[in-house]
Amino acid sequence: MRPTRLVLVALVCASVLVACAEADVEPRSAGEDVVGSWGASSTEGEAYLELAEDGTASGSDGCNRMTGEWSRSEEGVAFSAWATTRMACPAVDPWLSLAVTALLEDDHLVFVDKDATQLGTLTRTGTA
Which residues are within 8 A (CB) of 92 and not within 5 positions of it... i.e. 6 or more apart? Predict the structure, then answer.
């Protein structure tokens, strides 16, 4: 009977320690991780995006200026419909303006369209 009680006490103590350790770790939300600059805004013809803490987004697909709003989603970031200029730039792929969500993978945002097709990736270039 005594060894069973000892095992039970050890299990309870271990459970309490695990619960205390988990309570000290604050979950990080995707939104906190994505605020800042993505892509190189100084490189002509390259896409970039700025995500502000207030939920606004602005950038360029490499040709056209874009503005919109972003919010946290379960997978990362969800975007509102983009307002964009419509200049003709035949050599530029306007993939960024088609993004409805982005998934955070380390220091990269992977952008996805409404059909869950991966459009492209931007690398973090700065934080807010």
Answer: 45, 61, 62, 63
